[in-house]
Write a structure and sequence with these properties.
With 358 residues, the protein is an alpha/beta fold. It is built from 14 helices and eleven strands. Strand 10 and strand 11 form a beta hairpin. The model has no long low-confidence stretch (mean pLDDT 95). Bound molecules: iron/sulfur cluster (SF4).
Length: 358
């Protein structure tokens, strides 16, 4: 698939691949984990795995923001929608399965569920229809959490509140590095999230866990350079934090966005679909902004939720323990048209990405 690249990029890809092959271990294996759905798309679409040395494996971690929303939080949004509240969300969220139904199923039952491209669109819609109650189902990592914070600090209409489901990436990386049996040798950290949080939150990985960590962009060359930089660190025996994505990410990140998030949101323990509770991995509104918290406003109460339908292996796919093709339901009972698990829904889900190449 290297031919999918422009001529200049293909030549550079060939050079960096040759360098990789020179320094890759011949006997032992290296397992590198990326934590971003867009990285998985680039790797799969451009067939980058076929360029890697046989001893180097790149696996996908929990980098799809939609895939990791626990069923219980989908259930909350469904409950509100069925109660008559207008639930608004990003398009990818619509078909994510809850315990018994998705928001799309609720819509089919007559609930008012609307898809928007930004939180700002939900604000405008709530202003336009003051006689209705609106909830924005705020899903996403630090990148979208910053938009939620910005909109909250603007004057929000009284008929709009949020189901905050934002998660933080570094605590999930910590879970992976400590997970028994995963045996990772390096991280490709996500580019989008890093534009907001910068590099500092990743320092712990090389310093405490001895894990080479490289923030990389999303072009095929970015990913190849990211892998090469990790192999180089391993060869030198000097794990460190490096930034391949210098054209978009700086050390301190977007300080203004961080300040706004800090003002509006606090960090609490959070449940991730199929992974259980990860300490300090979820955002919630600070007490000063509790008026915008749909949980409190409507007294939402649901059970624990059913994250995995029978046979679904999403919990293993999102930590890279198995490939989507190793799930018995892949492209049989579970397809992009009829997803069983959350990883088959979003364009950033590993199963969905693999299905598109099937
Ligand atoms: Fe889950 Fe479907 Fe992927 Fe299996 S193929 S892991 S059921 S999303």
């Amino acid at each position: 698939m290297i031919q999918n690249l422009r001529f200049r990029d293909a030549a550079l890809a060939k050079r960096v691949t040759e360098k990789m092959h020179k320094i890759a271990p011949k006997e032992s294996t290296v397992k590198i984990c990326h934590v971003c759905g867009t990285h998985e798309w680039t790797i799969t679409h451009f067939g980058l795995r076929s360029l890697l040395p046989a001893t180097v494996e790149v696996i996908a971690g929990p980098g799809c923001p939609v895939c990791i929303v626990p069923a219980s939080e989908i259930d909350e949004a469904v409950q509100l929608a069925l109660k008559g509240v207008v639930v608004t969300c990003f398009g990818d969220v619509l078909r994510v399965p809850g315990s018994t139904m998705s928001l799309l199923d609720a819509k089919a039952e007559g609930a008012d569920v609307r898809v928007f491209y930004s939180v700002g669109d939900a604000v405008k819609m709530a202003e336009k229809e003051p006689d209705k109650e609106f909830v924005f189902f705020a899903v996403g990592f630090e990148t979208t959490a910053s938009s939620t914070a910005v909109e909250t600090l603007n004057k929000l209409p009284e008929n709009l509140s949020f189901l905050v489901s934002h998660r933080l990436i570094p605590p999930a990386m910590k879970l992976l590095v400590e997970m028994e049996g995963l045996s990772l040798n390096g991280f490709i950290a996500p580019g989008h999230v890093s534009t907001i949080i910068g590099l500092k939150p990743y320092e712990i990985f090389p310093e405490f866990y001895g894990m080479p960590t490289v923030v990389a962009g999303f072009e095929p060359l970015d990913v190849l350079f990211g892998v090469y930089m990790i192999l180089k660190q391993l060869t030198e025996g000097k794990p460190r934090l490096e930034n391949e994505y210098v054209r978009a990410v700086c050390w301190e990140g977007n300080v203004k966005a961080q300040e706004l998030m800090k003002k509006v949101l606090e960090v609490v323990d959070g449940k991730w679909r199929g992974l259980g509770t990860i300490p300090s991995s979820k955002f919630k509104f600070r007490d000063e902004y509790a008026a915008y918290d749909a949980h409190l406003k409507y007294g939402v109460k649901v059970g624990h939720g059913v994250d995995l339908q029978p046979g679904c292996r999403c919990h293993l796919v999102i930590i890279g323990k198995i490939k989507p093709t190793e799930c018995p339901l892949f492209m049989k009972a579970c397809t992009p048209q009829k997803p069983v698990g959350a990883c088959m829904v979003s364009s950033e889900g590993t199963c969905r990405i693999w299905a598109n190449q099937h």
